[in-house]
């Protein structure tokens, strides 16, 4: 169960709780994604699971490669794709 759930109405944060953070953004804008995460959590102290629901399939190769490279540099990061 999530505790202290807040549904946010503006910006890239869509839902935030003590255990979970949902972010909506353009995955080609990695500096924006990094900024949103850094403003919401201490990236060095979090386990981050990135789920891209087929989105990288529709990205150009350069943008998809950049996203995978970015995610692989997260401390204790995990990436999953959902088809």
The class by helix and strand makeup works out as: alpha+beta
Shape: globular
Tell me the number of strands: 5
Sheet of most strands: 3 strands, antiparallel
Q: SSE order in H/E notation?
A: EEEHEHE
Strand order of the largest sheet: 1-2-3
Features:
83 residues; alpha+beta; three-stranded antiparallel beta sheet; two-stranded parallel ribbon; 2 helices; 5 strands; 28% helix; globular
Structure description:
- The chain is α+β, with helices and mostly antiparallel strands.
- The protein has one domain.
- 28% of the residues lie in helices and 20% in strands.
- It contains two helices and five strands, in the order E-E-E-H-E-H-E.
- The longest helix is centred in the last third of the chain and has 12 residues.
Topology:
Elements: E1 6-7, E2 13-16, E3 21-23, H1 30-40, E4 49-52, H2 61-72, E5 78-81
